[in-house]
């Protein structure tokens, strides 16, 4: 019976050992489950529902750019309509005109408009000299600031209404101030829009500007004197590609003088003109070409001497 007792005892002890082992294993499982649950909740915190909420709080760069471009357009529209209101105010403050004359008091977009407006302003110029001049200056700057065509006809009109020195100073001042305002406006809103819609082209132009940074004044004079790029395009693109304000403004003031000289001279014979192209003869084109070459002389000399030294 002893073996049985021993066997039973052995069996019982093995059962106790197994029971103790299972109990210990269960305790381990119980201990591991909370940690697994904690790990699962941590994973949920990191990779589950809360994570997209964190991403939704910080918008992606394209969304930022889209919103920035939209804000730029709103700012541009607000400035434009404020300026338009100022134009309407000046029109309202203008001396009382006859009914037949009111239809001609508008921005000239062709030579006939310029002729009719010239007749009206010439009649009131002596009595209301400051009002007429202030009106021309404001309209000129408005057209330049918002890159609206028509400033050429105002240059011709200035030559018709005023003496040559007064007309030339007026046109150069208005061109430089209007172009500078357009530059600043483009810097405020245009840079975002161009980089949003034309990122590769803007980057290419910026690299070109960096290469010729020491000669920007000469290049600005050249571009203002030649018809390769329209003035409104230069005004809008210059701040986007990194052209500094000083060479831009000075280059504009000096660079518009030769073309303005031609337009003002043409204004002396306004009534004989049939189109704006009458202002530019082969002689005047040759004069512009000569001034353009003179503007690039410093760049040519600099490169020549640099090549000699190298």
The biggest beta sheet reads: none
> Total helix count?
14
- What count of structural domains? 1
Number of strands: 0
> Whole-number radius of gyration?
38 Å
Order of helices and strands: HHHHHHHHHHHHHH
Structural class: mainly alpha
Strand content bin: under 5%
Shape: flat
User: What gap, in angstroms, lies between the N and C termini?
Assistant: 117 Å
Rounded average pLDDT: 75
Helix content: over 70%
| Unreliable parts | 1-49, 51-59
Question: What are the main properties of this structure?
Answer:
310 residues; mainly alpha; 14 helices; 80% helix; flat; disordered N terminus
General description of the model:
- It contains 14 helices and no strands.
- The chain has 310 residues and is mainly α.
- It has one domain (65-307).
- Helix 7 (151-161) runs antiparallel to helix 8.
- The longest helix is centred in the N-terminal third of the chain and has 46 residues, at 2-47.
- The protein is flat and about 65 Å long.
- Belongs to the TMEM41 family.
- Residues 29-40 have a biased composition (Polar residues).
- This is VTT domain-containing protein.
- InterPro entries: TM41A/B, VTT_dom.
- Pfam families: VTT_dom.
């Amino acid at each position: 019976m002893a073996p049985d007792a021993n066997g039973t005892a052995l069996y019982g002890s093995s059962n106790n050992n197994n029971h103790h082992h299972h109990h210990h294993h269960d305790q381990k499982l119980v201990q591991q489950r909370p940690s697994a649950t904690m790990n699962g909740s941590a994973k949920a915190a990191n990779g589950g529902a809360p994570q997209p909420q964190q991403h939704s709080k910080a918008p992606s760069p394209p969304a930022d750019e889209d919103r920035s471009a939209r804000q730029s357009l709103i700012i541009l529209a607000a400035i434009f309509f404020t300026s338009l209101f100022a134009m309407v105010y000046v029109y309202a403050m203008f001396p009382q005109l006859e009914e037949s004359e009111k239809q001609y008091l508008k921005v000239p977009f062709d030579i006939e408009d310029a002729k009719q407006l010239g007749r009206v302003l010439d009649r009131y110029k002596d009595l209301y000299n400051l009002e007429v001049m202030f009106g021309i200056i404001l309209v000129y700057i408005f057209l330049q600031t918002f890159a609206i065509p028509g400033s050429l006809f105002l240059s011709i009109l200035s030559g018709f209404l005023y003496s040559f020195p007064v007309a030339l100073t007026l046109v150069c001042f208005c061109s430089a101030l209007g172009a500078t305002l357009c530059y600043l406006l483009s810097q405020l809103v245009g840079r975002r829009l161009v980089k949003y819609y034309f990122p590769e082209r803007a980057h290419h132009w910026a690299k070109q500007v960096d290469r010729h940074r020491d000669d920007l004044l000469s290049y600005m004079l050249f571009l203002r004197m030649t018809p390769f790029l329209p003035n409104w395009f230069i005004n809008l693109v210059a701040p986007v590609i990194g052209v500094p304000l000083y060479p831009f403004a000075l280059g504009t003031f000096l660079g518009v003088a030769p073309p303005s000289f031609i337009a003002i001279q043409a204004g002396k014979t306004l009534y004989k003109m049939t189109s704006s192209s009458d202002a530019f003869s082969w002689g005047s084109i040759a004069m512009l070409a000569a001034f353009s070459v003179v503007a690039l002389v410093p760049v040519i000399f600099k490169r020549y001497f640099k090549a000699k030294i190298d």
